[in-house]
Amino acid sequence: MYDVSTTPPVLAAELAAAWGDIQRNHPELPDLAAPESLIGESSSACGAELSFERLLHEAVHGIAAARGIRDTSRAGRYHNRRFLSVAEELGLQHVEEPHPSSGFSLVAMTPECRKRYRSTADRLRRALRAHSVATRGDTPRSFRGPAARHGSSGGGVRVKAVCDCGRNVRVVPSVLEQAPIMCGACGKQFRIPPEREPVAVA
Questions:
Q1: Tell me, what DSSP letter sits at residue 103?
Q2: Minimum mean pLDDT among 121-130, 142-151, 190-199: which range?
Q3: On the CB side of 154, how many CA atoms lie within 13 Å of its CA?
Q4: Long-range contacts of 168-172 (CB under 8 A, 24+ apart)
Q5: pTM for this structure?
Q6: Average pLDDT taken over every residue of the chain
Q7: Distance (Å, rounded) from C-alpha 188 to C-alpha 165?
Q8: CA separation (Å) from 66 to 71, 179, 188?
Q9: Are the CB atoms for 7 and 134 separated by under 8 Å?
Q10: Secondary element (H or E) of residue 141
Q11: What is the DSSP letter of 48?
Q12: Each residue of 96-111: pLDDT tens digit?
Protein backbone atom coordinates (compact mmCIF):
# COMPACT_ATOMS: atom_id res chain seq x y z
CA MET A 1 0.00 0.00 0.00
CA TYR A 2 1.25 3.50 -0.78
CA ASP A 3 2.32 5.77 2.03
CA VAL A 4 0.10 8.84 1.68
CA SER A 5 2.44 11.02 3.73
CA THR A 6 5.30 10.54 1.24
CA THR A 7 3.38 10.71 -2.05
CA PRO A 8 3.03 14.52 -2.39
CA PRO A 9 6.81 15.20 -2.36
CA VAL A 10 7.28 12.52 -5.04
CA LEU A 11 4.53 14.03 -7.15
CA ALA A 12 5.95 17.52 -6.57
CA ALA A 13 9.30 16.30 -7.90
CA GLU A 14 7.61 14.87 -11.01
CA LEU A 15 5.76 18.15 -11.55
CA ALA A 16 9.03 20.06 -11.28
CA ALA A 17 10.70 17.65 -13.73
CA ALA A 18 7.84 18.02 -16.22
CA TRP A 19 8.01 21.81 -15.87
CA GLY A 20 11.74 21.59 -16.58
CA ASP A 21 11.01 19.66 -19.78
CA ILE A 22 8.75 22.50 -20.91
CA GLN A 23 11.46 25.03 -20.01
CA ARG A 24 13.96 23.25 -22.24
CA ASN A 25 11.70 24.05 -25.20
CA HIS A 26 10.72 27.49 -23.88
CA PRO A 27 13.66 28.96 -21.90
CA GLU A 28 11.81 32.16 -20.97
CA LEU A 29 9.36 30.16 -18.83
CA PRO A 30 10.00 31.10 -15.17
CA ASP A 31 10.73 28.45 -12.56
CA LEU A 32 7.79 26.76 -10.85
CA ALA A 33 8.01 28.21 -7.34
CA ALA A 34 5.87 25.66 -5.48
CA PRO A 35 4.80 22.50 -7.34
CA GLU A 36 2.91 21.44 -4.21
CA SER A 37 0.38 24.22 -4.85
CA LEU A 38 -0.97 22.31 -7.85
CA ILE A 39 -1.37 18.95 -6.10
CA GLY A 40 -4.99 18.07 -5.49
CA GLU A 41 -6.19 21.38 -6.92
CA SER A 42 -8.40 21.95 -9.92
CA SER A 43 -8.98 25.22 -11.69
CA SER A 44 -12.44 26.42 -12.65
CA ALA A 45 -10.82 28.73 -15.20
CA CYS A 46 -8.89 25.85 -16.78
CA GLY A 47 -11.80 23.47 -16.48
CA ALA A 48 -9.38 20.61 -15.89
CA GLU A 49 -7.84 18.57 -13.12
CA LEU A 50 -4.09 18.28 -12.74
CA SER A 51 -2.43 16.70 -15.77
CA PHE A 52 0.43 17.47 -18.14
CA GLU A 53 -2.00 19.36 -20.36
CA ARG A 54 -3.02 21.44 -17.34
CA LEU A 55 0.68 22.03 -16.60
CA LEU A 56 1.14 23.39 -20.13
CA HIS A 57 -1.84 25.68 -19.52
CA GLU A 58 -0.12 27.06 -16.41
CA ALA A 59 3.11 27.43 -18.40
CA VAL A 60 1.25 29.68 -20.85
CA HIS A 61 0.37 31.97 -17.93
CA GLY A 62 3.99 31.84 -16.78
CA ILE A 63 5.36 32.94 -20.14
CA ALA A 64 2.69 35.63 -20.46
CA ALA A 65 3.68 36.97 -17.04
CA ALA A 66 7.37 36.94 -18.02
CA ARG A 67 6.54 38.98 -21.12
CA GLY A 68 4.29 41.39 -19.23
CA ILE A 69 1.25 40.24 -21.19
CA ARG A 70 -2.17 40.48 -19.58
CA ASP A 71 -3.65 37.21 -20.80
CA THR A 72 -6.78 37.12 -18.65
CA SER A 73 -9.49 39.43 -17.37
CA ARG A 74 -12.52 39.17 -15.08
CA ALA A 75 -10.36 38.24 -12.06
CA GLY A 76 -8.41 35.68 -14.08
CA ARG A 77 -11.43 33.76 -15.38
CA TYR A 78 -11.61 35.00 -18.99
CA HIS A 79 -8.66 33.84 -21.14
CA ASN A 80 -8.24 36.27 -24.03
CA ARG A 81 -6.67 36.02 -27.48
CA ARG A 82 -3.27 36.98 -26.08
CA PHE A 83 -3.47 33.86 -23.93
CA LEU A 84 -4.41 31.83 -27.01
CA SER A 85 -1.49 33.27 -28.98
CA VAL A 86 1.04 32.15 -26.34
CA ALA A 87 -0.77 28.82 -25.96
CA GLU A 88 -0.31 28.12 -29.66
CA GLU A 89 3.44 28.69 -29.26
CA LEU A 90 3.47 25.90 -26.66
CA GLY A 91 1.57 23.48 -28.87
CA LEU A 92 -1.94 24.05 -27.55
CA GLN A 93 -5.02 24.77 -29.62
CA HIS A 94 -8.61 25.90 -29.12
CA VAL A 95 -10.83 24.61 -31.88
CA GLU A 96 -14.17 26.03 -30.74
CA GLU A 97 -15.63 29.48 -30.26
CA PRO A 98 -14.52 31.21 -27.05
CA HIS A 99 -16.59 30.38 -23.99
CA PRO A 100 -18.72 33.33 -22.76
CA SER A 101 -17.19 33.29 -19.28
CA SER A 102 -13.78 31.58 -19.64
CA GLY A 103 -12.81 32.57 -23.18
CA PHE A 104 -10.04 30.42 -24.69
CA SER A 105 -9.18 28.56 -21.47
CA LEU A 106 -10.04 25.07 -22.71
CA VAL A 107 -6.97 24.51 -24.86
CA ALA A 108 -5.76 21.03 -25.79
CA MET A 109 -2.47 19.63 -27.03
CA THR A 110 -1.96 19.28 -30.76
CA PRO A 111 -0.84 15.86 -32.08
CA GLU A 112 2.69 17.24 -32.54
CA CYS A 113 2.74 18.48 -28.95
CA ARG A 114 1.55 15.10 -27.64
CA LYS A 115 4.34 13.39 -29.54
CA ARG A 116 6.98 15.85 -28.26
CA TYR A 117 6.04 15.38 -24.61
CA ARG A 118 4.84 11.76 -24.69
CA SER A 119 7.43 10.40 -22.26
CA THR A 120 7.06 13.40 -19.94
CA ALA A 121 3.27 13.12 -19.90
CA ASP A 122 3.43 9.36 -19.30
CA ARG A 123 5.81 9.81 -16.36
CA LEU A 124 3.59 12.46 -14.78
CA ARG A 125 0.47 10.36 -15.40
CA ARG A 126 2.02 7.45 -13.47
CA ALA A 127 2.88 9.75 -10.56
CA LEU A 128 -0.64 11.20 -10.55
CA ARG A 129 -2.16 7.71 -10.63
CA ALA A 130 -0.02 6.62 -7.67
CA HIS A 131 -1.05 9.73 -5.77
CA SER A 132 -4.71 9.09 -6.58
CA VAL A 133 -4.50 5.47 -5.41
CA ALA A 134 -2.82 6.53 -2.17
CA THR A 135 -5.42 9.23 -1.54
CA ARG A 136 -8.33 6.87 -2.19
CA GLY A 137 -6.82 4.40 0.23
CA ASP A 138 -7.02 6.91 3.08
CA THR A 139 -10.03 6.29 5.34
CA PRO A 140 -11.23 7.71 8.66
CA ARG A 141 -9.54 4.69 10.29
CA SER A 142 -6.18 5.36 8.60
CA PHE A 143 -3.32 6.69 10.68
CA ARG A 144 -1.45 9.34 8.70
CA GLY A 145 1.15 10.40 11.26
CA PRO A 146 1.83 13.72 13.00
CA ALA A 147 3.20 15.52 9.94
CA ALA A 148 -0.05 15.01 8.04
CA ARG A 149 -2.24 15.84 11.04
CA HIS A 150 -0.50 19.11 11.76
CA GLY A 151 -0.45 20.59 8.27
CA SER A 152 2.88 19.76 6.62
CA SER A 153 3.17 19.52 2.83
CA GLY A 154 2.16 15.86 3.20
CA GLY A 155 -1.37 16.72 4.32
CA GLY A 156 -3.34 18.91 6.68
CA VAL A 157 -6.01 21.55 6.44
CA ARG A 158 -5.93 23.81 3.41
CA VAL A 159 -6.83 27.48 3.62
CA LYS A 160 -7.57 30.04 0.94
CA ALA A 161 -4.62 32.10 -0.30
CA VAL A 162 -5.48 35.14 -2.44
CA CYS A 163 -3.76 37.28 -5.03
CA ASP A 164 -4.36 40.99 -5.54
CA CYS A 165 -5.70 40.27 -9.04
CA GLY A 166 -8.60 38.27 -7.59
CA ARG A 167 -7.44 34.69 -8.10
CA ASN A 168 -7.23 32.28 -5.16
CA VAL A 169 -5.90 28.82 -4.36
CA ARG A 170 -6.31 26.48 -1.41
CA VAL A 171 -3.02 25.54 0.20
CA VAL A 172 -1.58 24.05 3.38
CA PRO A 173 -0.12 27.05 5.28
CA SER A 174 3.23 25.33 5.87
CA VAL A 175 3.67 24.92 2.10
CA LEU A 176 3.26 28.67 1.64
CA GLU A 177 5.83 29.24 4.37
CA GLN A 178 8.42 27.12 2.54
CA ALA A 179 8.43 29.31 -0.58
CA PRO A 180 6.20 31.93 -2.23
CA ILE A 181 3.49 30.74 -4.61
CA MET A 182 3.37 33.06 -7.60
CA CYS A 183 0.23 33.90 -9.57
CA GLY A 184 0.48 32.88 -13.21
CA ALA A 185 -1.87 35.68 -14.23
CA CYS A 186 -0.11 38.70 -12.72
CA GLY A 187 3.15 37.37 -11.26
CA LYS A 188 2.42 38.49 -7.69
CA GLN A 189 2.52 36.30 -4.60
CA PHE A 190 -0.49 34.52 -3.15
CA ARG A 191 -1.01 35.34 0.52
CA ILE A 192 -3.27 34.16 3.31
CA PRO A 193 -5.46 37.12 4.27
CA PRO A 194 -5.67 38.00 7.98
CA GLU A 195 -8.85 37.05 9.75
CA ARG A 196 -11.30 39.89 10.08
CA GLU A 197 -11.38 41.41 13.51
CA PRO A 198 -14.78 41.33 15.20
CA VAL A 199 -16.73 44.55 14.97
CA ALA A 200 -17.80 45.97 18.30
CA VAL A 201 -21.50 46.67 18.57
CA ALA A 202 -22.46 49.65 20.70
A1: B
A2: 142-151
A3: 15
A4: 169/37, 169/41, 170/41, 171/36, 171/37, 172/36
A5: 0.63
A6: 78
A7: 8
A8: 11, 19, 12
A9: yes
A10: none
A11: B
A12: 899 998 999 999 999 9
